Amino acid sequence: MRTFLQASAIVCLAYTVLYVSRKILVHREFVKMSRASEMGWYEDNLIYKAADAFASGKKVEGITEMMEGSYQLDTAQIEAALSMAAAHRGDADGGYYAFLCAINKVLGHEVYHSSR
Question: How far apart are CA 57 and CA 16, in angstroms?
């Protein structure tokens, strides 16, 4: 009987340790995500689509219309980013990286990363 109680105690202790560690990890992830959301660091897929369009040579007017649906940028910021990236359209990647860098400069912090 004594060995049964000892085994039960060990199992309960292991379960408690695992449960508490899981709760701590979930709480840390929640805090991390809430800090990021307070800063407004959400990536908008529309920006990546606009960067692809920019790199493929689409006209500026079309890109401006595409980006007007973005919740992060207003018209003045869109125009500023396009003017900063316009000189890099002849780059090897079509200006994709320069476009994302210009968007990051306009936003004031690095949100978008080049995957090319």
Answer: 59
